[in-house]
Amino acid sequence: LERLDRLIVHAEQVNRMLGAPEKTTVIPMGIGAPMGTTGTGTPDAETQAMRRQLGLWHRRPILGSLGFIRPQKGYQELLVAAKILRTAYPDLAVLLVAPTHAGRAWAVDRLQAFVESIGMADRVVIVSKWQSEDEVLHTLQAANLLILNYVANPIGGGFSAAAKTCFRVRRPLI
Question: How does DSSP classify residue 9?
């Protein structure tokens, strides 16, 4: 921080964590315009097309989640919960939009191995390729419910960039 004139951060918690309020400016993240909906409660043509593309056209409900593959994201806990929910919702599926940085393909492999180890391979789709925000929004539109299952936050709170994106999909968010 010594070499910086100014640093812009997205949350007051990050500002406190850095401990240099005289050099930081907090500009909270905004939420972009929402995705269009048909208002009928049935998937629109775009949502149906995305579900077909993902191989989820026949699954209901579809639980979606967004975020890098990191321990604090709670993906394993979400997947175990989804497996339990299959008793009440036999067609349930999980869509994880989990972009991966270069050199971290092993994280996707490890998560896929976990999916297979709990017998959910036919119910879980992991989209790990880097996508534009619009592509992420269209992919998440396939879900009926979005879940951000954080089990820990390394900065002690704050506003999630994943939550900001999920709000635009116009699906319930837990």
Answer: E
Taking a C-beta distance cutoff of 8 angstroms, is the pair 119, 84 a contact?
no
DSSP designation for 173: B
CB count in 10 Å sphere of residue 89? 13
Phi, psi of 96 (to 5 degrees): -105, 115
List b or e across 113-125, with b for residues whose CB sees 16 or more CB atoms inside 10 angstroms.
eebeeeebeebbb
Q: What confidence tens digit (pLDDT) does each residue in 150-171 have?
A: 776 655 555 567 777 777 777 7
Q: What is the distance between the alpha carbons of residues 67 and 166, in angstroms, rounded to a whole number?
A: 10
Nearest-5° Cα angle at 112, 108 to 114: 120
> Cβ–Cβ contacts within 10 Å for residue 57, how many?
14
Cα(78)–Cα(124) distance, rounded to whole angstroms?
11
Q: Taking the model in full, what pTM does it have?
A: 0.72
